[in-house]
Amino acid sequence: MAMMDTNNGGPQGYGTTENPESGLKEVGEKLMEESHVMGLVILEQGKSQMRMITDGPKGLGYLSLIGGLAMVVCSVLGILFRTGPLKIITQVYLAIFGLAILTVELKKGPFSSYEAFISEYFLFMYGLYGRAMFYVFCSTLLLAQWPFFPDFVCGCYLGFLAFVYVTAGLASSKKLTHELTEDQLEEKFKEHDTDQDGRLSTEEFTALCQDLDIEMNLKQIEAAMLMIDSTHVGTINKEDFMRHFTK
């Protein structure tokens, strides 16, 4: 009877049957190498998605709308599928917070009638860092609902959104510099107040920044406006503009 060639008994590329330990070691090394490559691909994709959110064309308001809507949806799911009075009460609070976010971001529409209430009891949300801290609070509250997965995902998103707000604010603070006199600043304000309403809209403020060679993306523009606008109406009046640029 012919003897089997043991040199070719193992799978190609994974060692031989004469030395099974060597074959297993080689298999392990190949799996580790493949896992490392896959991990690098996933990491790069994650970085790409983060750059798309932080530097992409969508503004802070758009991202906040997604967060507020997600909170409301997750809260409704929690009320329907979770048990226990404390958990239900928490979901109701989360729904209220989500509606507050939608009210702040949607200047018009079904939530506009509640804006006066929000302005009185959620005034901190009209400031950049106040809003970021509110998102951190909501994020921790949502993450605490684990293992309810929808709340956990929403909590991760709001936590990252708070990070985007803070980084955009810090970046815009560093970039808002100029070498103009007060008279020149007043002239620039008047020049870019195209509708002559005494306030700068997002588009007008963006044009003014470009005129001053201040390069900022939409998120940084919106962050700057949140920091400058003390009237909480989404536009910048002359007093706030001069106060910020001459301090």
UniProtKB/TrEMBL annotation:
Membrane disposition: Multi-pass membrane protein
Residue segments, region Disordered: 1-22
Domain EF-hand residue range list: 180-215
Protein's organism: Octactis speculum
GO CC term, one of those recorded: membrane
Record's compositionally biased regions (Polar residues): 1-20
InterPro entries: EF-hand-dom_pair, EF_Hand_1_Ca_BS, EF_hand_dom, Golgi_TVP15
Transmembrane segments: 60-82, 88-106, 118-142, 148-168
UniProtKB keywords: Calcium, Membrane, Transmembrane, Transmembrane helix
Main location group: membrane
Keyword Transmembrane: yes
Compartments it resides in: Membrane
Calcium among keywords: yes
Any GO MF annotation of the entry: calcium ion binding
SUPFAM superfamilies in UniProt: EF-hand
A family per Pfam: EF-hand_7
Gene3D superfamilies assigned: EF-hand
Protein's name in the database: EF-hand domain-containing protein
CDD domains with a match to the protein in the record: EFh
